[in-house]
Structure formats: C-alpha cells, structure tokens
Amino acid sequence: MGKWVILDLDGDFNVTGFRATLEIQAEKGFQALKVKGFLPPDPAMVAQLQHHWQEIYRPLGIPLRIKGQKIIHKGSINQRLSDCQLSALALREQFRAWLNAESFRPIDRRLREALGRNDVIRFLIRTQDLNLQKLPWHEWDFFERYPNAEVALSTPEYESVQVKRAKPPHPVRILAILGNSQGINVETDRRVLAQMPQAEVTFLVEPDRQQLNDHLWETPWDILFFAGHSETYHGRGRIYINQTDSLTLSELRYGLCKAIDQGLQLAIFNACDGLGLVQELQQLHIPQMIVMREPVADQVAAVFLRYFLKAFASGESFYLAVRHARERLQGLEHRFPCASWLPVIYQNPLVMPPDWITLQGYPEQTPPSVLPALAPAEPVLSPYKRRFPGLTVLWMSVLVTLVILVIRHLGVLQPFELAAYDQLMRSRPAETLDPRILVVEVTQDDLNTLGGYPLSDAVLAQTIEALQAFEPVAIALDMHRYRPRGNGRQALLAKFRQYPNLLIACAYDQGDQDYGPPPEFSDEQLIDQVGFSNFALDKPPLMPAHPAIISAPSTGYAVRRQLLSYAPDLASTQSPCVTPYSLSFQLAYQFLNQAGIQPLTVNEADQWQFGPVVLLPLTRRFGGYQNLDGLSSQLMLNYRVADPGQRVSLQQVLTGQISADTIRDRLILVGYTAPVARDSVDTPYGKMAGVWVHAHMASQLLSAVIDRRPLIAELPQRWNFPWGDGGWILAWALFGGGVSGGLRTRKDRLSRLGLLLTWTLAMVGLSWGLTSLCLWALAQGLWLPLIPPILSVLLTGSFVLFSRGFPNASLS
Q1: Where are the alpha helices (DSSP H) in 155-282?
Q2: Residue 368's pLDDT is what?
Q3: For residues 655 and 162, what is the distance between their CA atoms, to the nearest angstrom?
Q4: Are the CB atoms for 267 and 223 separated by under 8 Å?
Q5: Integer angstrom CA distances of residue 747 from 65, 387, 743, 807, 811
Q6: In a 3-state reduction of DSSP, which class is residue 97?
Q7: What is d(CA 794, CA 32) in angstroms, rounded to the nearest whole number?
Q8: How far, in Å, CA of 59 to CA of 70, rounded?
Q9: How far is residue 203's CA from residue 181's CA, in Å, rounded to a whole number?
C-alpha cells in the first residue's frame, strides 16, 4: 500500500517565513502522523529563483513554446548553457540549505522515520505561494533516498470531485488540442499520441473556440491534452488555439466543467508557463494535471510526453510514470539545462490518481488475466498457396530492381524523372502567397513611361527612396549595374551607402564585365550588398505537361534547384562577380537576422543551419538527378503553388499608390518582367520572370525556417548508394509481381482476353495509386521516385504473368 504525504506551507518569503504542517497517511485515508514546523524567510533565495528563470534560463536562445517573447542573446550559446547550469547548481544548494534550517528539522526527521525506503509515496506540497511552486522540490535530498516518491503541487483550497467511470470498459479517450504552432513543432506530440495502445485519440488542429467548446460538451473524455503556444500574463494563463485566437481557461469554464462532470481525470499541458494555467484550472477542480513550470523547448516537451505515456500505458502508477519520464530528461540537459525541473503534477488531494486500467473503465486492481489482449490476427492461408509463384516473384523483383537502378545510375531515366517531377509539382494543392514578399515589376508600360530599357540610375535611386520611406526589411535589385545607365549614378551609389539593407545582383561565368557589380562596390562597406543571380539550369524534359493542368513549358533549360553559394575560384571564367552568396540567400539572411533568428551557423556535420532548420545540400545523386556537379551549395526549389508574394508595378510605387503596410517589414524585389529585358527562364510552371524565381527562392528559405514548410528531401542514401530508392522500387516490384502472381493462379474460368484486361486494369490501378502516393509525399516535402517504380511494377508484373507462357485461365 502506498503512502500519502502532505506538506502544508503558509506564509511568505520576505517577512514571516512559512508555517509548515506535515501529514502522513495511508492511501486509503488512515492518518499515521501530523507534525508542525517552520521554514524561515529567505528573500535572497527568491531573488536567486527569479534571476535563474527570468535572466538566465529564458534568454538561452532555444526554441520555446511561449508566445511573443523576444530575447536579446548575450554571449555564445556554449557560454549561456554553462551559465544556466551554474545558476541551477547555485539555486539547488541554496534551496537545500533552506530546507536544512533548524526549525524545519523536526519535520524532516519524522518524515524519514515514518517512511520506508521502498514505500510508494505521493508527496503533495500544498501552498498558494507561486515562488514555492517554482522551486525544484525534486532536488530535495529526501527524494534521492526514496526512489518511489514523486512530488506534486496543490492549493490549500479544494473540494471533492465525483469521478465517473463509463461502462462498459472502453479505450482511453483522449482529446488532443494542437494549437498555434508557429515557430515550434508539435507533430512529434501528435505521433506519440497516435501510437498509444488501447486509446482513441481525437485531434483538434488549430480549432476555433466554438469547435473546441463543442467537443468538450458533446463527448466524454478521460484525458485532455494541449500542445502549442501559451503564456502567463499578469498571473493569468493563456493558450493560443490557432493563429488568431487565444483564450484564458476561464473562458472555457463551462465546457471544462462539463468535461469533468463526464469523467475527465487528467489534463496534460505540454506548453510553456503551466503554473499560470494551473491558477485557473485548480478552481475547476480537475483531478490531476501535468504542466511545465517554465517555458519548455520542443524537444524536451516531446521527449517527456513519449516517456510518460510509454510508462503510464505499460502499467506504472501515475506518479512514478511522471517521475521516471522527468528523470529521463536529464539526458537532454547538456543542450537544454533544467529540462528535468520543468514537468510537475498538480493534484486535487481528494481524488485518487488513475492508472491506465481505470481510465479504460475497469475497476481498480483488475487482474491482468481478465483484461482484453491485443491478439495477433490469425493468418489467412490461400487455397492456392502451393500454386502461387512466390519464389518467381521474389527473384524477378530483385532482378528488375537491379536493372532499373543500373539504368537510372547511367542517367537514362533522368529526363523522364524530371518531367514526372514537374507534373507532380504542378498537381499539388494550392497555397497562399507569402505575406513577407513584395515584387515590384518593371513592366513594358513602366519602361515606355520612364524612358525605355534599361531604367536609368536616377529612376532606380528614386524607387529606392520611395520604398525605404516605409521601412522594408531589405530591397534587392535584380538588375546588373556595372556601367552607368543614364543620369543619377552618384545618387544611386549614395543610396547603397545610406541603406545597408539594399542589395544588387551580379552574375558569374558570363564572360562579360557588364554582369559584374558596380566597380565602386570594391570597398568593404558595399561588397556585402551583392548577391549573385545565377540559376542552376537543367536540360529540357522529354515529356510535355498535361494540358489540363498547365500549358507545357517551353523547351528552354528549366530551373528546379536553388543555388545558395559557390566558390568564386571554381567559376569556369574569371568574373568580377566574386560574392559567394546568392541574391535570394542574402535576402533571407537579412529577414531572419532582423527576426532574431540565429541566421547562419555550421553544425557538427559541417552543414549550414538557419535557426533549427538544417540546409542539407544536394549530393551528386539526388532524387532523379544522377550527376550534379557538387561545386556549389544547392537545394531543390520547392516552388509555391501560387505567386510567392504580392506584386505591384514600378509606376504604382513612384506615384505613391502603394500603402505603407504593403511595404513595411517585407522583403522587396525589384526586377524586369517586360519582354524586352529577356529576363525569364523555364520552370515546372512554364516561363517565369527571373525576379519571380528569386522571390520563390527567398520565400522557400523564410517558410522553411519560420513556418516549418518542408524543403524537398529524398529517401536516405549511404556510401553513395540509393538504399532508400532501391527499397522503394523493390517494394513496388514485389507488389506488381504479387498482383500478377495472384491473377495467374486464379481458378476462375476467364478467357485469355479477360485475364489480360484484368491484369491491365490492375497495373493501371497500381500506377495511379503510386502516382497519388508520390504526389502526397511531394506535398510533404519528400521526392519519391515515380518512373522507376512504375517500370518495376510493369516489368515484374509482365515477367511473372508470362514467365512460363501465357496462362490458360480456363484450365484448373
């Protein structure tokens, strides 16, 4: 039988100290001990506590699930981590010294005398003082001696709650609210919940208030889960349920009360500043809650949830499952200091904590032998097992896969794979435009009005001044200005010296100085304001686009990849364009730097990293590509299925027809769309002006880092061999061979024509399903091979069906 320990603390840190009352009782209510004591005032410890959490922990610079907090980072990340660890150590020692006060020793001594080392102990700290609740009570040396004890919090005021258990027994019903996740990742939480045994999980992804309220009212729940942004403001907890709506829990009072009345027993808030949420939740008398004391990092929140649910669902008690999951977070503390200090239980003392069995509606202490087991499904044996050509399917699938991989390695399939890739890109669902991008188009009408092509330096200087007046993040001129154009050269150069957020393009490997940056940019102040405008071009695909989706691209070389950087000394011709960074990369760098995201670091694998997003460069063989040059840092260009930003004309800017909100806090690209400039390239979406391709590239980087929009990835490779692609192709070869083998062994009396038609329809169905799966994967950022597995399905299926001559289906 477990023990129930309650430590009541009443008072304050500054003047009176705390009157302490200790009670120990058995789980079933028999009181064994009651002792009184005193903890002295200690304002210095409160100061250390506030200093640690507010000035050391929060400015660490790790991605936190707290809304709207901007932090100025001081010093390197290693220094900040070290400072936080030292601060935590100092706070722990000060806390232990406070608990070792002479006036508190009677409680400490009687506590250890009354409990056995192997007792299962629920230890409740009952107090209204928020500073007491923020202290790391698990660091009390008492918990080192008692490995089966875990601490929880409560307030002195509480009332009984009648816990309802639905009959008959049922899977654990979990309502999982995935709120505003901008800048954080809650998908790991979702995957963990989705894999829970004996559970039914309902996910509400960024719901509105009415939708959330309706679910609380209309369905009984056992567990309520929330992941997303939250914060505490003026002592009140607030959760952000979608991109626009936030609410305090008092605004869900009636819905939560209804949920509790219908059997809700546990609320888990895997979000920041949980103690603020608790202040309101405890008034509703939710039986048990798990919250985070302070802002929590994504990885810490996800790991805790996985460890807790795994332990809880496997039969551990609620308190021990929390303790074991919390202690396992210590393995992350070299990167996330104080991770094991964050999770804490908030408990209604009058309600027994549930276990996974009682949450399913079974009585307490139900013997495992009477619980339902997840028995494996009995195998279904085909009556034609002996006749199914399984061995033929296997070796034929392996042979076909190896042949396809060799042909693919030689580059024979590359044009077809790129054409299929383009078709899938165009078939993806629509997206909204990027609100951070504005493209100023220089149209033919603009040129006719402003003196023809190219624009004069004076017009560009005027354009820059008109845009800078409304405080954009950065402006990029997708134009080459090596030589003066008309009047205003000095005025244009003066704008570059005045505005460090102003960028201009150059191009390497052109064999012409006119593509270089202005020669005046040789000084150190201006050289960083240049980005190259070169594109990575592919040979024309052999397969045209389907006319029902979009007109076929022209036969020019297409842009499917984004250049981030190159080494100028590797260029094939000497060029004055010596900047190593692309124009789109320079733009994204400016935006992310202003947004407070550590913009460019090199991780342990020598890879570039923007904030938490690693930019994995394309290898020599990537997806359908079989021979990339490997001389530059490249990504696949994940075009938006829409314009990547708002568009305006140059005359609209110069005549003041654009509002300040259209420009403020945006990246501005200025470039030609007039045909006379001949500045357009082929893309999977047809002809596109170069300035718009740069806009897609800048948007890709911003969306990947800020919005977690996926970059295009491939299946894994190792030792320069596409193991992932090979496994994918082999799986479909086996699938196609298996279908053909099943048709071959059918006992139905079909004509040869009927069998051939059935096989054809089956192959078409498999190819359609494969295409749909590849389309879905590409929308998630994964480039799955399409042409090779289609070939493997058709070839393996054909060989299996005809390997011993055309089967006579009319013979048994």
Answers
A1: 187-194, 209-218, 253-261, 274-281
A2: 44
A3: 70
A4: yes
A5: 61, 11, 9, 11, 8
A6: helix
A7: 77
A8: 9
A9: 14
Q: Is 250 exposed, middle or buried (0-12, 13-18, 19+ CB in 10 A)?
A: middle
* Rounded Cα distance, 232 and 239, in Å: 9
CB 609, CB 402: distance < 8 Å: no
- 514: number of CA atoms within 13 Å, CB side? 4
* Mean pLDDT of all residues in 545-558: 43
d(CA 790, CA 401): 11
pLDDT in tens, 610-649: 878 888 888 888 888 888 876 678 899 999 988 899 999 9
Mean pLDDT of 639-666: 91
- Upper half-sphere CA count for residue 659 (Cβ side, 13 Å): 3
User: Positive or negative CA dihedral for 36, 41, 45, 47?
Assistant: positive
Calpha distance 716→718 (Å, rounded)? 7
**Per residue in 370-401, pLDDT tens?**
444 433 333 333 333 334 557 778 888 889 88
Reported as a single tens digit per residue, the pLDDT across 106-150 is: 999 988 888 888 889 999 999 988 899 999 999 999 998 999 999
CA–CA separation, 491 vs 392, rounded Å? 77
The residues, ordered by sequence, that sit 6+ positions from 654 with a Cβ below 8 Å of its Cβ are 450, 459, 462, 463, 466
428-438: buried (b, 16+ CB within 10 Å) or exposed (e) per residue?
Answer: eeeeeebebbb
Return the residue matching tokens 């165009």.
Answer: 426
The CA-based angle 681-526-579, given to 5 degrees, is 45
Q: Give dist(CA 72, CA 151) in Å, integer.
A: 34
- At 510, list the tokens: 């052109």
Helix (H, G, I), strand (E, B) or coil at 178: strand
Count Cα atoms within 13 angstroms, Cβ side, for 403: 11
Residue 208: count of CB within 10 angstroms of its CB = 13
The phi-psi region of residue 122 (left if phi > 0; otherwise alpha if psi is between -120 and 50; otherwise beta) is beta
What is the separation, in whole angstroms, between the first and last Cα of the chain? Answer: 69
Q: Which residues contact 110 (CB under 8 A, 6 or more apart)?
A: 22, 33, 35
- Map residue 175 onto helix, strand or coil: strand
**Count of helix runs (H) and strand runs (E) in the chain:** 25, 30
CB 672 within 8 A of CB 689: yes
The answer on pLDDT for 812 being more than 70 is no
Contacts of 731 (CB under 8 A, 6+ apart): 789
Supply 368's token pair.
Answer: 């495992």
How many CB atoms lie under 10 A from the CB of residue 78?
A: 8
208 vs 201, 245, 256, 388, CA distance in Å? 19, 7, 16, 54
Task: List C-alpha distances in Å: 237 to 230, 251, 281.
Answer: 7, 11, 9
d(CA 718, CA 727): 13
H or E stretch including 609? strand 608-610
Q: Are 621 and 731 in contact (CB under 8 A)?
A: no
Taking a C-beta distance cutoff of 8 angstroms, is the pair 240, 246 a contact? Answer: yes
Candidates 638, 618, 636; CA nearest to 627 is 618
Nearest to 182 by CA among 563, 430, 429, 436: 436
Q: Are 603 and 614 in contact (CB under 8 A)?
A: yes
Dist. CA 375–CA 718, nearest whole Å: 38
The residue to which tokens 């400039």 are assigned: 677
The number of beta carbons lying within 10 Å of the beta carbon of residue 133 is 19
